[in-house]
Design brief:
single chain, about 500 residues, mainly alpha, Rna Polymerase Sigma Factor, Chain: A, Arc Repressor Mutant, subunit A, 5 domains, 3-stranded mixed sheet, transcription, RNA_pol_sigma70_r2, sigma factor activity, transmembrane helix
Amino acid sequence: MTDDAQLLRRFTSEGSEDAFNSLVTRHIDLVYSAALRMANGDSHLAQDVTQTVFTDLARKASSLSPNVILPGWLYRHACFTASKSIRTERRRQAREQTAMQLNSLSNEPDVSWDQIAPLLEPAMAELAETDRDALVLRYFNRQDLRTVGNALNLSEDAAQKRVSRALDKLRTLLHQRGATLTVTALAGLLTAEAVSAAPAGIIATISGTAVAATVATGGFTWALVTKLLLISALIAAIAVPLAIQHQTGVKLLEENRSLRRQMDEASRLEAENKRFSNLLASRNEAQSLARTQLNELLRLRSEVSRLRQQTTLVKNQPSKSSPISLKFENLDLSHLLELYAQTAHRSILRPTALPQTSFTLNTSATNDAEAALLLEKALAEKGFTTVLDGDKFAMIVPAYQASIAVPHSAEIKTSPPRWPGLEERGQVPTGEVNFPAAFVETVTKIYAELIHRKLISHDRLPPGLLITFRNQTPLTKSELIYALDTLLAWQNIKVIPVGDDSVQAVVSTAQ
C-alpha cells in the first residue's frame, strides 16, 4: 500500500510520531484480532501481543523492504509473537508447578533404599512390558534417553515421556505396598542404588559354566572323542616325574591364592567406585532438576517474606483518624499506579508497554500500608506482579515477565559507585523527573546531564523505544541513576563510559 510506505518512510527518516500513530490506528484491529484468536480469547494476552507487534514495527521499520506489504507483515508477526507468548506462559506455569513439587518434596518423610528394595521387583513385575523395558534401559542399564528411544523405536522426547509415565506407575505400585515417595525421590533412589557391582570372580565362573553346558549338548560322538582325548592326556600326565609335578602344583596353588586376593580387592574397589558413581549421578540429576527452578523458588520465598513483613507493618501502623477511601470504578492502570505509589511511598519501576486494563474497588483502609496491600492485591488479580526493591522502589510488571523484576537497589550502598566522582548534593524532589512515555534518546540525554558527561551519538539504537518513569519519592542522584539503569536494561539498552568525560547508549548483549 502506497500510503503505508509513505508513512513508514516519514517515521524512519523524520522520526514522525504522527505517521507512526496513523499506522497504528489503521492496522490495530487486524493485529488485535489475529492475536485474540491465537490466544483463544484471552484479551489481556492479545493486548500484550498487539503492543509488542507495534513496538517491534517501530524498532525494525528502517530494515523493512520498501516493497513490503505491511498488513501481511503485521499479520505474520502477530501470529509469531502470540505463539511465542503462549509458549512463555506455559513454561512459567510448568516452572511454578515444579517449584510446588519441590516444596512438597521437602515436607514428605524420607524413604530409604532398604525400604524400597524388597518391594521393587514385585512392583516391576506388575508393569506392562513396554513400561518395564523403559525403566530397565534408563535406570538399570544406565542408558541416556536417546539410546532408550533408539531401543524402543521412539524419539528422544517420546522416550522421556514413556520413562516418566512408567516411573509414575511404579511409584503408585510401591505406594500400594506401603512405600510413599514422590516420582523425583524414586528416580533419585533408582539412579543411586538400583545397580550393584557383581563380584569380579563370578564372571569367569559363569563363562566357564556356560561354555561347558554348550559343549555338553554336542552329542554322543563328540563326547566319545573327548573321553579318548582325556584318557590320552591322563596317560601323558602320569609320565611326568612326580617331583616336578608337586613343585608345579605348589607354585600354581600359591599363584591361585594370590590371584584370588587380587580379584577380591579389585571387586571391592570396583563396588566402591560404582557406589560413588551412583551417588554422583544422583547428585547431578538433583542439581539439574533444581538449577532451572532456583531463581523462581527464591523469588517466591522472597514474596512470602515480603507479605509477612507488610502484614506486620499494617498491624503495627497506627490508624488514621479517617479511613482511606478506595472506591472507584473503571480506574485506568496509570492512575492506580500513582495511587499505589502514594500509599506505598515508593517510586514505580515499570515497563512502558503494560496491558491496558481498568480497576474497580469499593473498600477503604485504615492506613497507607493497608491501602498499599489492597492495591497490590487488585494488581495481582489483573495479572501484575509487584516486587519491592529496597525502601524507595517497587517494580510492577506483567506476571509472565516476573523474571525481569530482580531487585538490586541494596547494592547502591554496598557496591562501588556506578559513576566515580558523582556528587550527590541533596535529593531530587518528588516529581522533578517525569517521563510519561519518552523516547530512549531523551532519557539518555538527561542521564548524561545527571552524571556530568557528554553523550555521544547513538544512531545505532532501534527506533521507537519508550521509557515511562516519575520519581514519586525524593531520590538521591545514585538512586535516580539506578532507576534509569533498570528501565534501560529492560529495553536491552546500557549506558557505557567512553573515555573519561563521555558516555554512549548501546544495545546490551546480556539477556
